[in-house]
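To fix ideas, we reproduce below one chain and its tokenised fold.
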Amino acid sequence: MVLQGDLYDITVVGAGPVGLYAAYYSGLRECKTKIIEMYPHVGGRLISMYPEKEIFDVAGYQRIVAAELIAELTGQAMQYDPVVVLDERVSGLRVLDERLIELTTHTGASHYTQAVVLTVGAGTALPRKLDVPNLISLEGNGIHYFLPAFEPLRGRKVLVVGGGNSAVDWAMALENVAAEVTLLNRSYTWTAHEAMVEKLLSSRVKVRYPYYGLKAVLGDDRVTGAVIWNEKSGLEETIAVDDIVLSIGMLANIEPFRQWGLDIVGDGIRVNTDMSTNLPGIFAAGDIVTYHGKIQLIASGAGEAATAIHSAKEFILEGVLGR
């Protein structure tokens, strides 16, 4: 038997930017709210991996540093006093009754709620890696997948690999920090936003594009250089670098969600237009969801979060009113 004091209206799983906004909107709708976050702090990957990265896709800000954005979102969410559970990873989900859901975590704890909103980003994700000589052996010694701080790279020669928003943003952020920045894009197109690519191409960053990839990492105990090549022409070049930043995407682990019975399409949870999933009382928003026309932006994730909370509140009211 679940005591009334232990039962929440809405539990938000994931306290990244989308999760924090979901918690805010849940409080605004006067729902008893709990947040469960796997990291020992709110902010998700923005804080653990990208705290100094500038964010450009949030309404009302021309640009804002990730840590500052999380501070603003945290203040917004906490005004309604949600219960925040940190350092617990949700490992199990069971629909026990029509409006009773049990969430279990890796600590063995159980949390009970009428509705769940999953805002888990890309889930438990790992950075993509390249199968090139010396890369794995030099991880932690000049090989980076995230940049928690830019200052350690001051005055150094940095090679950034990737053609997406994170790669372009990091290259631009390092332009006035590093002694030299080179960016490789092996594709003939960019997945980064067009305006940011235009700024990149007019900056001091040395852009090698298209078809340029990383062929080998040089160095014994630490990175000292790289062999880059043009995959179309086959021409190779050795350049001196002190650090290599790999920004070629994440590998999402979505198997836990599949095991819970959620409908998985590709690397995401399929949702309807009201952000409901195929399980009653389970809603989702942010990078983890997929639907036709989905855009991976913090701004669109916030809109999805509001829709998910609204739908969850309607779901709860249906039970109260007996509809």
Remarks:
- The mean pLDDT is 94.
- The radius of gyration is 22 Å.
- The first strand starts at residue 7 and ends at 13.
- The helical segments are 17-28, 44-48, 66-78, 165-174, 194-201, 255-259, 298-321.
